[in-house]
Amino acid sequence: MKSTNVKVLYITGWGRSGTTVLDRILGQLPGFNSVGEIRYIWDRNFVGNHLCGCGKHFRDCPEWQAIINDAFGSFDAVDPNRMIQMRDGLTRTRHLAGLTMPGTTRRALWENAREYLTNLIALYKSIQRHYDCNIIVDSSKFPTYAFTLDILKEIDLYVVHIVRDPRAVSFSWLRRKLQPDTGTLQPMDEHGPFFSTLLWNSWNIATEATWGKRPERYIFIRYEDFIRQPKKTIQRILRRFGEEVDSMPFVDEHTVHLGINHTCSGNPNRFNEGNITLRMDDEWTRKMRPRDKYFVTAMAMPFLHRYGYPIVV
Fold first, then answer.
1. Which domains does the chain have, with CATH numbers?
2. Residues with Cβ < 8 Å from 103, sequence gap 6 or more?
3. Reported pTM
């Protein structure tokens, strides 16, 4: 990771796969800074004024005020609705094929989003200057957003691809979780087994197909291995990308101390602080409805063995 460009460690993987907690731990490392899911900053933060990880509303957070003022002059200097339109025209899942294939479709998508890309560069550079960090940790997850960052010559992108058993992911999406981001308690999105597994398949295929051929920029980890050995997993990520740190936030092999953060978006556990013990969430093995378990297993069958998951649980 030796470059004068902005270095971004990008975490990708379908939701409910441990991306937020991985983001938080990496963001605690010396020289690293976590910003959460930057892809959503225009709608959830500029427009929705959701909570920063510090607990303040985004526009009231002194850290983000300084970053935005440095990048754009003020919050009002950027039209967030225009940014959302351009982002969605470029980074929606349906554009995976167009982005991963050379030719006019890919060039047209990029050209239509030139203003958006320029603002992304300004934003990431401002974050780097503000925190004087070597590496920005971004857990936006979308494979298409990773492709977007990768085309920017000012950004050096490194991808951490985290995968969790699709049945566990599907079960988690069916849980009703309260979302405190808006300052009010509202249920988070829920996805059924079909949609969850469809996205699990397509996102993992796209990420591995694009980045798996670039081992110097890509590392694959499983959620289950990460939770069993979190410290060793973080060390493995650092070794892969040639990074060294003189301290880590681990209290013991399974407990990490998390301080205040300024993530703009992510799972509600981004608000957790203090000593956090990482435990395997395997409730799905006991409580998932058999028909959902069989359905997800059938849909994900080609990839279960590839990623080391049993067919029968």
1. 6-304 (3.40.50.300)
2. none
3. 0.93
